[in-house]
Amino acid sequence: MKSTAILLFIILLIQACSSTKYIPDYQSIVKKVRIDSVDAKFEEQAYNYVQKDIRPASKLSINVPLYNLFNTRDGRYKTNDIKPFGSPPAILDSTLVEISRTQIQKFLKSKGYRQADVNASIKVANKKAEIVFTAKPGPAYMVQNISDSIPNANIRNLYESNKAKISHLHKGMQYDEDSLTYEREQIYRIMKENGYFYFLRPYVTFDVFGAEPSSKTNKIDLNLNVADPENGSHKQFNIGYTHMIIAPNPEGFPDSVRYKLSKDTLNGIIFTDFSKRYRRNPIVRYDFLKQGELYDIRNENLTYDRLYELNVFKNVKIDYFRRDSTSNKINTVIQLIPQKVMSNRVEGEVPFNGGTVGFTIGNTYTNNNIFRGAERFELQVKGGLQSRIGNGAKVFSDIYQRDFSISASISVPRLMIPFYNPVLGGNGMPHTTFASSYIYALQKDVSVRRIFINSITYDWFETKSKLHSFTPLNFEYRFGNLDPNVDSATIVNNIYYSTLLNRKDLTLGMKYTYTLNADKLNQYRTFVYLRAGMDIAGNLLQGISKLTGAKNDPANDDPAKIFGLPFNQYMRPEVDIRWYKHLGGDRQFIARLNTGVAYAYGNSVLNGIPFEKQFFAGGSNGIRAWQARTLGPGNYNREVISSEAFRKAFFGLDQLGTMRLETNFEYRFTVARNFFGATLKGAAFVDAGNIWNIRKSESISAQVPALDELTIFKLNKFIKQIAIGTGVGLRYDVQYFVFRFDVGLKLKDPQFIGSEQWVIGKFLSGARDFKNAYNLTHAPDTYRFLQYNFGIGMPF
């Protein structure tokens, strides 16, 4: 694999340097484009007017090398059977150069340089071309006076009252046509938000005086016009009644239904459901076009958004009509076409690593309208297993891990709070979710764990970018059993894991999560994303226990109990913060910091954090050079487990900690826009971090004091305990799904000591001997420098 990667890199490097050999002698490849004598603040915008086909690729881009690799034959570029890999080089075209020159000149004139003149020159040497656009911008024209002509007094008052908030125009500014367009758009928006239903953008115009290039002064006067229609003045309209109609099926409305419309009006809404699938109130709740209110386009858009977010209609159409031409009322017709209510999805994955293979398969049944009120019911059944392979053993002959889970949830599109009916939905669809699940996990010859989880969660939007999620009730019942045949020496050597896996307890707590800018994750822009949450449990039960007067001593293994079981008491804050930087086009850089701490106290001061609440590192969404749950904590090395028999008994068991700190840096770009009907994107990344324990009692083996020093977080050992990996990946974007494949390479592995941590040196030289030596002290674990990750969706 290593030699293949190096060979591919060399091929791409050679291809990158040799594009000119594939073109005829009369052609040239554009290697550089410059724009001279343009104000620095307009340079990037001016460059965007250079035609894409003559823009050279970035020096770091692999698009042209990939294109050359797959689309050349007999020393020439192919003219047919073009493979959708990469992008062709920029071939010089004088026609495109002239178009670009003209567009740049028009752009400069629109920015106030009314006398601008742009020339283009081309330099060619060895079939490589450089294009230089040289501008003579002339003086910048400034706005001297601003006046307006608005004959309608109501519109004038409306404009004047909003002018300070919406206008970009002011005396002394540099003339800019974009500012005029913005002003027109803002006036149109204000009009449509204040009842002027029939107002159109062409009613707003500007008179520009003194803008001619021949003008003796560089001063411009502007006059804003908001004209009335020819047949009178602009009028404001109120909403009359609303007729909400649901089609009989996903095929739409047949002509015959118009004669069967309901005539019963309630709160200004006539509701007709030809499908007979929906209750009235859950649907009409999200009609924000209320009878008697002034027409407001924001309410129209809000109605569209919420009705679509109910996820039961595939098409929403809003029309208006007037009973007569003299009325100032417009009546609303909302036509809804239902979508398929039920769906079934089968998913699976094949996790594998050196010495193991397995699979996970799941089936999810969804009903989006189970109680005829757009309630979403979801039932998921999931199972999987993991098996050891090697030494001639057949696949799945040595299964060491089995997992099974079943979960059900009902999500209602409103907040169901006793004795309170909040009116929400202005910024996003609120939900109340009732969920229940059962998890079964078997570790062969070690343990069986059973977990029951029940919760109620409220989700609502403060703004479009601020989401709150609050779980006031989260009840978990955990029942673990060690296998009675587990060797006592194995338990002693892994006392911490043994205690975790043998726990029988319950949790009653609450969770809160705040998310900022999740709505921007699929946009190419610069922003900060934040997801911060707190999981806290046990305080209520601790209070109840104290009220009962029960005497307990959790520090001496005598915790308080409810229904005969000890309850967990802990807090678990976690933060995920990212900086998304747009680099132009489809290029993006992301820096991410993910951290969290799980702290047990009170009734759990001795028993610590439950197994499922601890942190892990590695995997396709974390430090991708490590398989999930195989990194850390700290400098932990499985070599400390004294014999291969003990290591085999606990093979595949998660490596966990009560603190996590990891950071990721990722550069994203587009490889091919049309790759078998979808977009193929690429990524290069560097990941770093680890997990730790924060108290000695949480150590993987509390009976090995030296191990405490390896796994406990200490600031003076922080650098020595950081894992670093790098890699590249591909993302196949089919619009609704992104299929992801990443290859991670270990650079620094904290399980080793000193300079031995920089395992990249072993990868480049002596990898086989290094692996063999590692296997002698870690078998059945094997060492892998490369980790492959398959997934659906972006890693973060």
TrEMBL record:
It is found in: Membrane. It comes from Pedobacter kyungheensis. One of its GO terms (cellular component) is outer membrane. InterPro entries: Bac_surfAg_D15, D15-like. Gene3D superfamilies: membrane protein fhac: a member of the omp85/tpsb transporter family (2.40.160.50). Its main location: membrane. Residues 474-752 form the Bacterial surface antigen (D15) domain. This is Membrane protein. The lineage of its organism: Bacteria, Pseudomonadati, Bacteroidota, Sphingobacteriia, Sphingobacteriales. Keywords: Cell outer membrane, Membrane, Signal, Transmembrane.
